[in-house]
Amino acid sequence: MIFDICILFLYLDPIHDTIYSIQFKNQVLQVFISDLLIILITAFIGRLLAKKIKQPMVLADLIVGLILGNLGIIELSETMHNIADIGVLLLLFSTGLAVNLNELNELAKTSTVVALLGVMIPFILGFFAAHLFGYSYLVSIFVGTSLTATSIGISSQVLTETKMIGMKIGTLIIGAAIIDDVIGIIAMGTVVGIAVTGNLEIASLLISIVLTITFIVICLTLAIYFFQAISNSFIFTQIGNYQILLPILIIGLIFAIIAEKIGLSLITGTFMAGLILGQTRLSKEAFESVSLIGHSFFIPIFFVTMGMQFDLSTFFSMGFFALVFIFLAIFGKIIGCGSGAKVCGFSFRESLAVGIATVPRAEVALILANIGLKYNVITPNIASTVIAMTMVTTLITPTLLKFSIEHLNKKKKHK
Amino acid sequence: MIFDICILFLYLDPIHDTIYSIQFKNQVLQVFISDLLIILITAFIGRLLAKKIKQPMVLADLIVGLILGNLGIIELSETMHNIADIGVLLLLFSTGLAVNLNELNELAKTSTVVALLGVMIPFILGFFAAHLFGYSYLVSIFVGTSLTATSIGISSQVLTETKMIGMKIGTLIIGAAIIDDVIGIIAMGTVVGIAVTGNLEIASLLISIVLTITFIVICLTLAIYFFQAISNSFIFTQIGNYQILLPILIIGLIFAIIAEKIGLSLITGTFMAGLILGQTRLSKEAFESVSLIGHSFFIPIFFVTMGMQFDLSTFFSMGFFALVFIFLAIFGKIIGCGSGAKVCGFSFRESLAVGIATVPRAEVALILANIGLKYNVITPNIASTVIAMTMVTTLITPTLLKFSIEHLNKKKKHK
After folding, report:
1. Secondary structure (DSSP) of B322-375
2. Long-range pairs, B235-241, Cβ under 8 A, ≥24
3. How far is B123 from chain A (nearest CA, A)?
4. For residue B133, is it within any domain?
5. Residue B25 domain-assigned?
6. CATH assignment at residue A368
7. How far is CA B294 from CA A383, B252, B302, in A?
8. Is some CB atom of chain B closer than 8 A to the CB atom of A266?
9. What DSSP string runs through B118-173?
10. Cβ-defined contact of A295 to B242 (cutoff 8 Å)
11. Pick the residue with more confidence: B94 or A25?
12. How far apart are CA A338 and CA B406, in angstroms?
């Protein structure tokens, strides 16, 4: 709102419009370009160091962001936020393009089992822990729900770095994380509905579920045929090499907006767009160009800005409940998703990798904390705890997951 | 300033920081993603149509922007401005990478002659026309100076589309436009100095000239050796395909900021960075990746937002002086630069193409209008005239230049 007024202020009349916007633009541009340069240079140096000490690059990005943010070297601007958001959209787009759809179909049941256990067990643990600590049912539901949805970005990036996206275990992790994200978002919608209206709105819950299933079914059937046909049409055959990415990005954004309109996340949309385009003639070109534009610009910025939002002072006010909560956040997913994978016939080490990959939480937990505070359902203290949980789970996952995947690969080679 | 306060407002304390920024982010993000989608889709459709009727794609972008802006379909956000600015930086970066440095050196004298005549003749025409219409000396100097500097983006894009960047005539055009931009910026600095202090500040003028020459000499000697050496180092040999663009973008941004610090434009910096990297082992990879990321995302957005800033209502208040001024703007460059090329031995048709390519004006003219208004040197009416001139010269150039270049190619083939 305030921001709208600021922008409005710049659009008063023809001449002053142009004149003011030039002045405004030059100042903003200078700050933006130097911020951008600082982020890109530090991320690049961080990544080189990470490579030297065999740590995942995404950890380097997060730590670089943590330092830049907490030392106040850069303040996050609206532009940087938006560029970061394009980053995570491209990350899931390229993940969708790299996933093997046949294998994903084969693993559909397993992914669902893993996702369901990975949602239920952390929810139950969070709910009862909060209740034992004396919080009300509603607060306990909020706390439990904040543990349900995996933030898929971190694992997606680590799987890309370790070249595991197209492998069986990578497919399972991505499949489970997407399903768990969808369930988490629907659960969040339901819980928020309860908090705002005081009732469980079964009708809107059902509508969400039906819309989601319809969307996914259409994506995996009609949309694939449609885009297979269109990829051979003049639109894609007549345009030059450097233009091919433009229509591909358009398709990704269209799916992102559709997904968002029916109540899912934008990234679920670009992931589905990636899955669909992965089945067309454009698969290789799309993957390469999306990966190039993503991994060399937008995605590092996404992870650095994610790190910048980690406010270390959050930890100073942490109590005993926060420690328990973070512990449950980590082991809830490892036990939930891990046991799901184990039940479906994966080895212990594979199941452990699946469990670790689903540990990071972010968006859903943060939005719940946001809405919970706004409607006075939770206290600032609990909101802090949730934020600290997202920070810890995000920061520990890259190293653990890389280690566990590499261990897995070594094992296989020995056989 | 107002914007700073808005941003500051979001950084109050740890929890509220995170919480507010989520709320703020989601609203802004939704608007941003749908604006982005509208711009990309309309640009893509416009470009397909342009291809069908054999018009330059950049004209399509401008017209699309003109429509989106004047119908009020999209309001330009800070993010879109910043993304557009990255677009023009990448455009000049890829132009620098594509230019043949040996040929540019051979044509250095010719380019300088073309640029000098192309600065002097429009200045003289503008100055005397304004004076004849009864304006004061100072106003006439402002008006004359606003005609000096070519806006290189349009011509650069048309040359890219017609694959003329590496050719002799393309090199001459780019060389002349860069020199003329540098002269224009120094002239602007001088004129603004006169307007603000009332004196011609010879010392700062000399410092500008010395710094500029030093920068260009270092770029073309030491910097080339340095980056030839560094391109073989571990930084570029150890990183994967999808990471190669990151250090390349960093180098481009560093040169942009250096250029800006010594008083040149950011785009002169990325152009020099492109020239330098074009002499290293990385030339091909850099050109391909910069072109891909630029031409499929940032550059179309740059031209569309340029079109969006064309306010058609500016034309309604136009008087007779504006018509004369626009006429002089067009023919000043065609005669100035064209006669320069002709004197240096180019054919009539080649000289005409060089003249047309240097017609578009934008940044320098708009900044002059801005500062002139701010210090009450010029009236809003003259500022309007200058803005209308930038619109007309920008809109007519793509078609004229494409036509004249294609005519040239046909002629050559007939021989």
Report:
1. HHHHHHHHHHHHHHHHHHHHHHTT--HHHHHHHHHHT----HHHHHHHHHHHHT
2. B235/A48, B236/B281, B236/B282, B238/A48, B238/A51, B239/A48, B241/A292
3. 22
4. yes
5. no
6. 1.20.1530.20
7. 41, 13, 10
8. yes
9. HHHHHHHHHHHHHHHTT--HHHHHHHHHTTT---HHHHHHHHHHTT-TTSHHHHHH
10. yes
11. B94
12. 65
CB proximity list for B123: less than 8 A, separation 6 or greater: B144, B145, B147, B148, B187
Q: Is residue B393 situated within a structural domain?
A: yes
Token output for A266: 């934008």
Q: Are A100 and A165 in contact (CB under 8 A)?
A: no
Burial annotation A24-56 (CB, 10 A radius, 16+ → b, else e): bbeebbeebbebbbbbbbbbbebbbebbeeebb
Q: Is residue A71 part of a domain?
A: no
Helix axes B320-343, B380-414, angle to 10 degrees: 40
**How do residues A44-95 score in pLDDT, each as one tens digit?**
999 999 988 988 989 999 999 999 999 989 888 889 999 999 999 999 999 9
* pLDDT tens digits for range A152-164: 898 899 999 888 8
Q: What is the pLDDT of residues A103-162, one digit of tens each?
A: 999 999 999 999 999 999 999 999 999 999 999 999 999 999 999 999 889 889 999 988
Helix, strand, coil % (nearest 5) of chain A? 80, 0, 20
Find residues 108-167 of chain B whose CB sits inside 8 Å of chain A.
none
Hey, is the C-beta of A87 within 8 angstroms of any chain B C-beta?
Answer: no
* Interchain proximity A19–B246, CB inside 8 Å: no
Average pLDDT over residues B88-101: 92
Average pLDDT in chain A: 87
User: What was the pLDDT predicted at A208?
Assistant: 86
Please calculate the CA angle A144-A145-A151 and round it to the nearest 5 degrees.
115
- Distance from C-alpha of B265 to C-alpha of B271, rounded to nearest angstrom: 10
Q: What is the pLDDT of residues B297-320, one digit of tens each?
A: 999 999 999 899 888 887 777 789
Q: Mean pLDDT over residues A252-261, rounded?
A: 93
Which among A360, A149, A87, A152 has a CA at the least distance from the CA of B29? A87
Q: CA of A272: how far to CAs of A86, A100, A102, B393, in Å?
A: 16, 12, 14, 44
Q: Which domain holds residue B169?
A: 30-410
B48 contacts in chain A (CB < 8 Å): 235, 238-239
pTM above 0.80, yes or no: yes
- pLDDT given for residue B316 in this prediction: 77
According to DSSP, residue B77 is labeled P
ipTM of the complex, rounded to two decimals: 0.86
**Number of domains observed in the structure of chain A:** 1
